Amino acid sequence: MRRLLSLLAVPLVAVATLSTAGSVATAHPTAAFPSRIALPDGFSPEGLTIGRGTTVYVGSVGNGAVWRGDLRTGHGSMFIAGAPGQQKAGLKLDPQGRLWTADFSAGTASVHDGVTGALLARYQLTDEPGRIVNDLVVTRNAVYLTDSALPVLYVVPLLPGGRLSPATAARILPLTGPAASPDAFNNGIVALPDGDLLVAQMVAGRLVRVDPRTGASRVVDLGGYSVDRADGLVLRGRTLYVIRNLSNVVAVVELNADRTAGVVRREITSPALRSPATGDLLGSALYVVNSRFDVEPAPTVDYDVVRLPA
Question: What would the pLDDT profile of 41-91 be if each residue is shown by its tens digit?
Fold first, then answer.
């Protein structure tokens, strides 16, 4: 975890001040839903994804545990036990209800039963030193994972009907163009309607489109706006939420029709934001997890999930 803090502790880039202000679910949060959900002290959360109904999953980059809770009640419990040396960063549920996790420095991706937590598969993506398997997106044909230290995407093909492929099926997709820039720190990732992938570059402060067949990439034009500290991405239609961790801001970007450019319509800010890392949508609310990257991890440090107006 100290390594993660050192990676995040780079100077913030000044950006223009704008007006303050995923997955599509059927529920529509109202004032009855809690605005804050406490996680276990010392949990060191990073990834968050919303499942069926109001179920939420949060993973720990501290010990690889996964906490499962209910956004309506605010209550939850440990779903997957952690262990020393384990880490889970990005989380995503697939249409079959399986929970995929990016296992950070382990160089692996794990697949768990979304109901029982049982381990269904584990894919060794790389054994190269210095890897940081950070976030992921599930598409119809494959799961794509970012590496924040290496200029690659990892690809786990899916068989017809979404069935899991053998452990040996995972492959590496080398990146070219701006997505391969040294020290850009590729982080959050979402899939676009035309099949391309959109990746957030946390240190470079930009978004890049990646062709999942070739690895070629290009920068998305944001009109000069920097998404410095960009961590998780949440996409609904043409609206993209860029969660900027140490900046304590969520940039709301309206993408153009072909998703090659976008305009930042507003920034969501709140005193409740404390280095948010990732998030997901439920109805008219955006839920983000506060990873508190500006605080040294300790058993007494408190963490939470907060609800914001989307």
Answer: 999 999 999 999 999 999 999 999 999 999 999 999 999 999 999 999 999
Distance of alpha carbon 262 from its chain centroid, rounded? 20
How far is residue 107's CA from residue 121's CA, in Å, rounded to a whole number? 14
What's the domain count of the chain? 1
Element (H, E) at 3: helix 2-8
CA distances from 84 to 41, 61, 87, 102, 281 (A): 16, 11, 9, 17, 31
CA atoms within 13 A on the CB side of 223: 9
Position 22 pLDDT exceeds 90: no
pLDDT of residue 207: 98
How many Cα atoms sit within 13 Å of 188 on the Cβ side? 31
Domain carrying residue 255: 2-309
What DSSP string runs through 172-219?
A: EEE--GGGG-TT--EEEEEE-TTS-EEEEETTTTEEEEE-TTT--EEE
Task: Answer whether 96's CB lies under 8 Å from 121's CB.
Answer: no
Indicate which CATH number applies to the domain containing 183: 2.130.10.10
